Structure formats: C-alpha cells, structure tokens
Amino acid sequence: MSSSESNLNSTPAPLGPGGTRRSSAGMVALSLILLAGLVWAMAPGRAKFVPAPLRPVLPGCPLKAPDFVPSDSTEVPGVDLSALSAAQKNRVLFRVNMEPCPCGCNNSLAACRTNHPTCPVGKELVEKIMADETGANGKVSGDRSQ
C-alpha cells in the first residue's frame, strides 16, 4: 500500500467559509470557551456573609488575663546579689524569674520588680526569697551539715 492510496481513503478536513481549512486548535479553543461559559453559568450564587456584631464587654465581666510567662532577668532592681555565692545567686535568680507575682500583673517577680518598682507584694516576696536562700543564720540553704 503506497502513501497515495492511504491519502485517498482519508477524509479531508472541512473547508471554512473562505475555502480555507479549519484548524483543530481553533476548535479546541472554541470548545474550551464554551465549556468555561457553561461552568460559569451553572455556578451557584455565593452566600453573602455578614460578620457578627461585636458585643461590648460588660462592666462586671473581668477580662481574661494573659498566661504567665517566666522572665530571664539577671538583675533585680533593689536586690543586692553581690554578697551571695554563685550557687545562691543562681537559685535566687531562678526563683524570682519562675515564680509569678500575686499582685495581679501576671509577671514573674523579677519582671514585676523591673516594671512596677513600687509593688509592695513583689518586694516582700523577693526579700523572703533572699532570706530563704541565705538562711536565717547566714548558712547556705542547701547545706545540710549541722
């Protein structure tokens, strides 16, 4: 079978209005445009959402306090750490950075002393921690020898 015989059996492409052959790319483009129009026409309408109105906080309702986050202060205002040994200083700094101040500021004792130097609650607790770590008679608070 020669190539001229196979060409005779195939159907020629349809002729356009000007006697030119239509390209298959044009047909694909036209099909895609018609398909896109059909999808757009059949798409459901979008819901029109309106945000809920914000209600003001009632006067008697306390606001939620933020979570306690420990601080990492290496100095505490009003506290002389120079007289302490390195171990005592580390224990004092650990405690004042990890313990929350009960005055309601929701900061650590060290942050409360830094941000609110007039807080009497924080000052008393820092002094108590210093007394606990130095011991009442000057002994180191981890020293178990008697």
Structural description of this entry:
With 146 residues, this protein is mostly helical. 42% of the residues lie in helices and 0% in strands. The protein is built from five helices and no strands. It has helices at 3-9, 24-42, 86-98, 109-115, 120-134. The chain is elongated, with a radius of gyration of 41 Å. It starts with a helix and ends in a 12-residue tail after the last helix.
Give a short synopsis of this structure.
This protein is 42% helix and 0% strand. By secondary structure, the chain is mainly alpha-helical.
Please render the helix and strand layout as text.
Blueprint: H1 3-9, H2 24-42, H3 86-98, H4 109-115, H5 120-134
Name the descriptors:
0% strand, disordered C terminus, mainly alpha, 146 residues
- What is Rg? 41 Å
Strand proportion, as a percent range, falls in: under 5%
Total number of strands? 0
Class by SSE composition? mainly alpha
